[in-house]
Specification:
By secondary structure, the protein is mainly β. The chain has two helices and nine strands. Strands 1, 2, 3, 4, 5, 6, 7, 8 and 9 form a nine-stranded mixed beta sheet that branches. Strand 4 and strand 5 form a beta hairpin.
């Protein structure tokens, strides 16, 4: 694991203006016990879930609407933390962008771990692109 101080806003500023995937992330930690990432949304993320990990999503920038399980959608904004267990269906809509999160996944979430409720909504390849931390 890399030790150090990471400037999340500097990482956020390096994301491209556009992407052909729903989101782009930069991994800060990528260990078996946990992954830590900064990611930016580029498109609406349809209902999906992750099989291998629980997620902790801290909103760094932007605004959106988050749907979690069967609960009513709720607004999200900087400073909020959304927490949910593996297998929980969730979706995100951007209302004011860019919408950027700091995410911790326990244990590690491999980039291929995404299951769309409607399989026609996407694949792991259309879901996420990872950029290297420099």
């Amino acid at each position: 694991m890399k030790s150090g101080v990471f400037d999340l806003h500097a990482i956020m500023e390096r994301f491209p203006a556009q992407s052909d995937t729903m989101l782009v992330d930069t991994r800060i930690a990528d260990e078996a016990s946990a992954s830590a990432r900064v990611f930016r949304l580029y498109k609406e993320v349809p209902p999906h879930y992750h099989v291998t990990c629980d997620e902790y999503l801290f909103v760094l920038a932007g605004r959106g609407t988050f749907s979690l399980g069967t609960d009513a959608p709720f607004p999200i904004q900087p400073g909020q933390l959304v927490v949910f267990a593996r297998g929980t269906v969730h979706s995100i809509t951007v209302t004011e962008g860019p919408l950027v999160f700091y995410a911790v996944d326990t244990p590690r979430r491999p980039p291929t771990d995404v299951v769309f409720v409607n399989p026609d909504d996407g694949t792991p390849q259309t879901f996420i692109k990872t950029e290297q931390l420099s």
